Amino acid sequence: MNPKRIALVKTLMTSACEKDCYYCATRRGRNSLRRETFKPEELAAGFNIIHQRGFTEGLFLSSGIIGGGTRTMEKTIAAVDILRRKYEFRGYVHLKLMPGAERAAVERALQLADRVSVNLEAPNSERLQKLSGTKAFTQELLAPLRAARDLMRQQPAFARTSMVTQFVVGPAGESDREIIATTTRLYQELQLARIYFNAFHPVHDTPLENHTPTNPLRELRLYQTDFLLRQYGFTFDDLTFDENGLLPLDTDPKTAYALAHPEKFPLDLQNADRAELLRVPGLGPKSVQRILDLRRKHTFTTIQELKKLGADAERAAQFILLNGKQPARQLALFAV
């Protein structure tokens, strides 16, 4: 089941927390926040009511941390277990793995959930220290993800469960290069389904309340880069960063790649292979496949034909040839 297409209830087991994350609304010592806690049966029963009334199809369950990661997970696992057994809920559940959770707790989470996750928040230990004084990057955050992956490899039944993580973008002073380097490694080592990026926005009554919010466009560029890595065959070495290790904000990363490699463009739609076509700005996996299918019996001669295939023809124009010729709207970059 795809969580993007269903109505999810996202809730915390408790809003109390012993961690001190400097950006977080539920951090310890934030006296302006009223704390609430569910008992496992209360949460399961409450969710069942709104599910039976048709208001939701799935549950995203996280929690503040009290008494350590494993103890906290015992509560969230108990709630989902009640939901599955007593209320016979067979729908989608995304269950957070708590920092420092032991392997047995991770295994039980995999038995119950469709998706599990741990938010790494930062790309490495050095950056995480600027966001929290009570979290350990490798021992507490990476460890549950690695345990989950090991269990998935050992037990085929867990293959149905997907795994994701998230980064907070900006407050630790990290570069996009650092984030994408870690992203690339996580996809290779842990086969994560997705990585999410959350542009930092300051929260009142936290240590970072006066910190400058992160430009949302930076979040967008990271998502666009993530898609290139997952769906377009790009590698880390293909990406373009500025002198500060940041992705350009004034253009998308695929166009930045094309502009940085004029020797590779323009490409003739009639003979370029799939991998080459996926490097063309404005062409996606679906439009590329349509081009490959249609060109067996058809020669492309106009930009309008690309539009009918679902491509962003205006964006692609300066990087392609149609039947060996440059489109009429092609920019001067490749006019020589």
Describe the structure.
Helices cover 37% and strands 11% of the residues. It has 336 residues and is an alpha/beta fold. It folds into two domains: 3-214, Aldolase class I (TIM Barrel, Alpha-Beta Barrel), CATH 3.20.20; 261-334, DNA polymerase, domain 1, CATH 1.10.150. A six-stranded parallel beta sheet has the order 1-2-3-4-5-6. Strands 7-8 form a two-stranded parallel ribbon. The N and C termini lie far apart (51 Å). Mean pLDDT is 93; it is low at 330-336.
* Quaternary structure: single chain
Largest sheet: 6 strands, parallel
Low-confidence runs of at least 5 consecutive residues = 330-336
Q: Tally the helices: what do you get?
A: 12
Q: What count of structural domains?
A: 2
The count of strands amounts to 8
Please give a quick description of this structure.
The protein has about 325 residues and is α/β, with parallel strands linked by helices. The protein has helices at about 40-50, 70-85, 105-110, 125-130, 135-155, 175-190, 215-230, 255-260, 275, 285-295, 305-310, 315, and strands at about 10, 60, 90-95, 115, 160-170, 195-200, 265-270, 320.
